[in-house]
Amino acid sequence: MSVNLSAWAIRNGSIVRFAMLVLALVGIFSYQRLGQSEDPPFTFKVMVVRTNWPGASAEAVSQQVTDRIEKKLLETGQYEFIRSYSKPGESLIMFIAKDSLTSDHMPDLWYEVRKKTNDIKFNLPQGVQGPFFNDEFGDTFGNIYALSGDGFDYATLKNYAERIELDLHRVPDVAKVDLVGLQDEKIWIELSNTKLATLGLSLYQVQQAIDAQNAVNFSSFFETETDRVQLRVSGQFKTVEELREFPVRADGRTFRLGEIADISRGFSDPAAPKMRFMGKEGIGIAVAMRKGGDIIALGDSLESEFQRLQKTLPVGMRLEKVSDQPAAVSHSVGEFVKVLAEAVIIVLLVSFFSLGKRPGLVVALSIPLVLAMTFTTMYLFGIGLHKISLGALILALGLLVDDAIIAVEMMAIKMEQGFDRLSAASYAYTSTAFPMLTGTLITAAGFLPIATANSSTGEYTRSIFQVVTIALLLSWIAAVIFIPYLGYRLLPESHAAAPVNKKTQRLKQRLALMLPHWAQSWLQPPVQSADHDPYATPFYQQLKKSVSWCLEHRRTVILATVAAFVVSVLLFRFVPQQFFPASTRLELMVDLELAEGASLKDTQRVAKALEAELAKRKDIVNFVSYVGTGSPRFYLPLDQKLPQANFSQFVILTKDIESREDTRRWLIDLMPVKFPNVQTRVSRLENGPPVGYPIQFRISGEHIDEIKRLAHRIADKVRENPHVANVNLDWDEPSKVVRLNIDQDRARALGVTSTDLAVFLRGSLSGSTVSTFREGNELIEILLRGPEDERVNLDMLDSLAVPTASGASVPLSQIADLEFAMEDGIIWHRNRLPSITVRADIYDDTTPPTVTAQILPTLEGIRASLPSGYLLETGGTVEDSNRGSRSVAAGVPLFLLVVMSLLMLQLKSFRRSIMVLMTAPLGLIGVTAFLLIFRVPFGFVAMLGTIALSGMIMRNSVILVDQIDHDIGQGHTPYDAIIDATVRRFRPIVLTAMAAILAMIPLSRSVFFGPMATAIMGGLLVATLLTVFFLPALYAAWFKVSRDTPAQTVH
Known about the structure:
This protein has 35 helices and 30 strands. The protein is an alpha+beta fold. The strands form 7 sheets. Strands 1, 2, 3, 4, 20, 21, 28, 29 and 30 form a 9-stranded antiparallel sheet that branches. Strands 5, 6, 13, 14, 15, 16, 17, 18 and 19 form a 9-stranded antiparallel sheet that branches. It starts with a helix and ends in a 13-residue tail after the last helix.
């Protein structure tokens, strides 16, 4: 390099001091303004297309609606898969976009989905409502409150909830407020069909009379010389009492509506999905943060508003916290900051004890400076603080001091040899700057597959690459500009002039006594002389002998290393596999799924029974149940459930991890005993993209009966595995149906059509809208229906009085026969084929990939006998893990190309570059050993760490090979150059490795990053030893170096 940045920094000290001060202040400013959240931004690539076809069976909906839309959506080609279900009167299609698509592509794709669906809208059967689209699945409602109160109905609660909603919208960083569990108000007019028949009235006549009275019609106006006077016609209902007093004419007589009907003001019946908090019904108020906001600051603002709002509520009404993400994030961030502080202390101790007081101080000062620069860059690029970026910061901490240690160590060595401070800094730059840059870029390139992984898992973990790369590049800038200046100011002119700290000296002497005799000199003070050779100590002499032995016995060393690598590969299959570990959040999820076709009332009955059991537990902070639907997304990776009448979901908040696990075990034991006829599931929250059941096998085919038969065979095989529990099918049960077989001849004679009968039954049982009651800003439906005994008692169905064309009525049994039958209540598709998923949980410590690998061989017989066109696929954790792994593997060729290009630029030799590249996979020896010893599973994050480890290994290799080539270029014989270069680079290589390895110790306690930290620690430890002993032997063998090889003969 033509410009010596280190020398320039020393000569322009005032500029460097000013830059350091500004960067530190800007870093503090940036850190305070970094957005904080629990998880990184994540795109949910799902669109839901919902279509209604009232009156149609599940089979008809599947064939006439769902299949038509699915076929059209397949034309987009941009789908990972298309999953759908068809229920009586309802079709719901989930379009899952390709995992490789980025968030920028989503708006265009969702526009195309809407366009293609609307293109066939008019080809759908008559009477179809929709399609309706929903692509808003990414909102995370981190704060959820429950508004409840004894003696308050839903209308009153809704009134106060809407006031609270308005107040919460004024809070900074609030993006969205949703009300959960609302029950729409209705005015019910219950009329007996028998009574109407006696009076000679029909439901239609009553409906027409009410609607004509309550309609708002334009009555024109008077236009005078000076004014325009509007005309208003009265008659609209203002109270329910007016509706009761409404006159109805029949057979020349006038009746009050209240005399012939029961009129009441109530709520949706059947009820809409409900929210129940601590066993009491209420309304949920869910708050979502704006993108890039600070969840901690939002939590403080909401807490103040929460305290204020509680004081405005009437006596008996309560506003209580259900979910408090800011508290969870604050605890999580606090834990990571604590781990970061521990890692900083460890790195400082390594620096002070290995380099000495003043060189250690130089390295120590570089840490906050590089962190400040990193925070500034993160702020500029919009990277917030969350568990991925914070973990990446801790990971980077052990790496960002590497360049500082190398630069300071080189300056200190040269000053011990008599160089002045400026010359030592200049020499350090000239000899190490470019190799350090290459090594830094190679280390950063190790994280490149994370950046290029086009998948949901890649998007979730991408900030690891971003933060580590930023920190590494900035650490190199600090090492060539700020470190030389600090060294110039803090290091003594020569080692002889350096003051001796007696306390530190005594501590080093005591530590030296604990080491073997040959290693004690590493902690002993060097000889105080200007021409002192720092490598003449007994320790380095012993090191020279060891390296020389490796050169002499190079074949033995190489074969032993290769054998260790082969053994590690063979043993790796014994390492437990996983995708992402479970979250450390304190919530538990409990799913209750009744038989298909179950009513919401029955679902609520089961939910209340579980609430009664939970109320007995003292280690539960609170619990909330969602009846008829799943929980709002209060946690980004939540596997969200869609509304289903037969489904209820509980969110249980416990006091701590121990309480969570105790409650989980209690629930797992409780469910089969108390709820034997309910499909239940107890689960922790997940890390990473949501998966659902960890064990899943899908069977797809053309004929529903056949895939049901096959699914039961698969389920039997899955149950044989001792590690699985809760084996179930996602659909299989038929639901009850009553078919009305109409005598068409008799019906036609009476002037009754199938449509007439369907409309009559809908009005009698569910209610038909007759008008709208207007009250303030509320629009309340007025519905006409039969009395409760006609709606609830199935035995009375055949006696319903059906109006005829003549105005008379006949019993339903005279024109139709009732047939009680069973039919599919739901039909699931995957890519247009009927599909059943066999699902299972794992309640012990066995990992899903391990269990799946055990089950797959038992399914080979079923797979071999599958009819043509039928598919048996593996889903769940294994499928998502493989998808994520493939996306990372796709970036490996780019990683290799970048690394080879950097090696060629630095080493200018293809042979040397290949040799360095060959050392990259050797870290697997240590990775396998540490994972097996500490019984740590190898998951997706650990895989990323193992790939990144290869960059760290090649960094040390390239620095050593460059030093060897430099010494050969200076006229040394190749044999001596290998030994001398290894000895001279031993100290910085070992120190940087120690800093990285020891800084990982606090991170290894993390549930999420622990496997990655353990893998890197083991791999880097073994790789450092191989760099010192194996790489010299490999170099000697590669270039056929012997003691007699003359100088300048290695190419």
